[in-house]
């Protein structure tokens, strides 16, 4: 067989784009594939086994429609585009998410879809509940809160709150982040699947959760009501109130639902009860309502029957998976605890090591400071020793000087005493000399007077002798060798000798007096010089005493 023949036998395909809440996929589908073939392919690609909750949705002429499983894809009224786009979404919602959502992928897809509906305000949520739900969403995305890693501003690019809530309260993004982070920090230790399940458990209690709303009318002219279909039944709402239904029909109380063109009839199980009829704007809307009613009713009945083997296996696997995850979580918790303890021990050891290093550094610095201080003290000790030697030397010199001054003072005192004694003696001598001088002066006066009297007597005697001689011997001068009168001459010679002797005594006496006077003057002069010397010595001693007193 040729290659060309093989190519001719290959089936024709068309491309489709499957858009999930968080991803996009493209597949090549055969022309003959039905909706179920494409749906199964997508479920296999996602690893999804709880397929009964989901469907493929597309938009045609502004209306959202679900792809029918029993019809060919290309035979249905789908958009004419390449590739053909379908949204893989949850078509039916469980009554109790914790019991019915078994697979983790199923929980994750429901979590993403419900979160998107809340943020798009398709499901109303109070501001307080939105903050709590946002904290679980953050826990599912980022894991446990770590203040060292999750710094302020780490939620700046995440959409976590509906715009209605942001407009309702005039809070900054930082304030909202602080509120969310306060709850987020409380979820420490919760795994991603647990956080998503907690999110869904809060969301399933909201009034608009899982409800598909359609405008209807009780007559053909007015659309003044809303019909809601969910997992519990059919509800009738007023056009302005989607929270509290005016009337509800639970699946257990509905006997039959019929659809004919734009009219839909609900027959209660109680035959006596009134049959409810309503009209929709289009036949397609009526068929969509009817399709959702059948699907939700089938699931309602299915929940109340014994689980199929597949469901039992899935539940067993889910329990095993939960048990395994629980054990894994406990193991991880233990490991985490041990790791935290080890980290704390490590931090403690590092802190202790750092402390010891710091203490060692401080001790080393203290040792260096001690060495420096010891060297400084040694230098100071050496300087002090030198100063002590110098002080000792100065003290010795001072002691010697003191002794010298004492000796000098003693000598000065002794010399002063001696000088005073000498001065007193000199004064006494001076007094004696003065007295002696006075006495000698008086004696000299007397001697002078006696000398004067003697001379006067001598003059008178000579004069008298001459007078006598001239009178008695007038010719004696002419006759000197006159022999008579030898006795007279002898007497005259004898008188002359006496006179000459008396003159000699007077001269000698006068000479002695003059000599004594000169001796006295010389002694007086010497005594005055000695007194001057003594005064100068006393003045010098006084100056030395003053200087010694100042030095002391």
UniProtKB/TrEMBL annotation:
Residues 311-464, 517-544 form a coiled coil. Residues 14-304 form the FERM domain. It is a peripheral membrane protein. PROSITE patterns: FERM_2, FERM_3. The keyword Coiled coil applies. Keywords: Cell membrane, Cell projection, Coiled coil, Cytoplasm, Membrane, Nucleus, Phosphoprotein, Ubl conjugation. One of its GO terms (molecular function) is actin binding. It is found in: Cell membrane; Cell projection; Cytoplasm; Nucleus. PANTHER family: MERLIN/MOESIN/EZRIN/RADIXIN. This is Merlin. It comes from Acrocephalus arundinaceus. The gene is Nf2.
């Amino acid at each position: 067989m040729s290659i060309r023949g093989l190519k001719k036998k290959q089936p024709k395909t068309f491309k489709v784009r499957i858009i999930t809440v968080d991803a996009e996929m493209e597949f090549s589908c055969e022309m003959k594939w039905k909706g179920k073939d494409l749906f199964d392919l997508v479920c296999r690609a996602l690893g999804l086994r709880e397929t009964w909750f989901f469907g493929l949705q597309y938009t045609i002429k502004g209306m959202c429609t679900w792809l029918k499983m029993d019809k060919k894809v290309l035979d249905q009224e789908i958009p004419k585009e390449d590739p053909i786009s379908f949204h893989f979404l949850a078509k039916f919602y469980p009554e109790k998410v914790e019991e019915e959502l078994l697979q983790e992928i199923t929980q994750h897809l429901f979590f993403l879809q419900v979160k998107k509906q809340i943020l798009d305000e398709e499901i109303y949520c109070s501001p307080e509940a939105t903050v709590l739900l946002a904290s679980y969403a953050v826990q599912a995305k980022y894991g446990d809160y770590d203040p060292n890693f999750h710094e302020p501003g780490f939620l700046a690019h995440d959409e976590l709150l509906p715009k209605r809530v942001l407009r309702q309260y005039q809070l900054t993004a930082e304030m909202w982040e602080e509120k969310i982070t306060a709850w987020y920090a409380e979820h420490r230790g919760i795994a991603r699947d647990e956080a998503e399940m907690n999110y869904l458990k809060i969301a399933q209690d909201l009034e608009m959760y899982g409800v598909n709303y359609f405008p209807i009318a009780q007559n053909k002219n007015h659309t003044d009501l809303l019909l809601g279909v969910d997992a519990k039944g059919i509800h009738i709402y007023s056009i302005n109130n989607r929270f509290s239904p005016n009337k509800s029909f639970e699946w257990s109380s509905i006997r039959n639902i019929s659809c004919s063109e734009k009219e839909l009839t609900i027959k209660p199980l109680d035959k006596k009860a009134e049959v409810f009829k309503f009209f929709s704007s289009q036949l397609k809307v009526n068929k969509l309502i009817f399709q959702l009613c059948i699907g939700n009713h089938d699931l309602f009945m299915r929940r109340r029957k014994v689980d199929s083997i597949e469901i039992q296996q899935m539940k067993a696997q889910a329990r095993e998976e939960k048990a395994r995850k629980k054990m894994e979580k406990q193991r991880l918790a233990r490991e985490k605890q041990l790791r935290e303890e080890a980290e704390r021990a490590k931090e403690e050891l590092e802190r202790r090591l750092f402390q010891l290093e710091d203490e060692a550094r401080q001790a080393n610095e203290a040792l260096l400071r001690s060495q420096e201080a010891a060297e400084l003290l040694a230098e100071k000790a050496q300087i002090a020793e030198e100063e002590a030697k110098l002080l000792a030397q100065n003290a010795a010199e001072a002691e010697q000087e003191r002794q010298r001054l004492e000796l000098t003072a003693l000598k000065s005192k002794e010399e002063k005493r001696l000088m005073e004694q000498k001065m007193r003696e000199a004064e006494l001598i001076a007094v004696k000399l003065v007295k002696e001088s006075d006495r000698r002066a008086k004696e000299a006066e007397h001697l002078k007077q006696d000398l004067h009297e003697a001379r006067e007597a001598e003059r008178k005697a000579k004069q008298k002798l001459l007078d006598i001689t001239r009178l008695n011997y007038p010719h004696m001068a002419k006759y000197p060798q006159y022999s008579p009168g030898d006795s007279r001459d002898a007497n005259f010679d004898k008188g002359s000798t006496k006179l000459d002797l008396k003159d000699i005594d007077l001269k000698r006496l006068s000479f002695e007096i003059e000599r004594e006077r000169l001796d006295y003057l010389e002694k007086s002069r010497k005594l005055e010089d000695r007194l001057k010397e003594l005064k100068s010595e006393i003045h010098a001693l006084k100056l030395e005493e003053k200087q010694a007193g100042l030095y002391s």
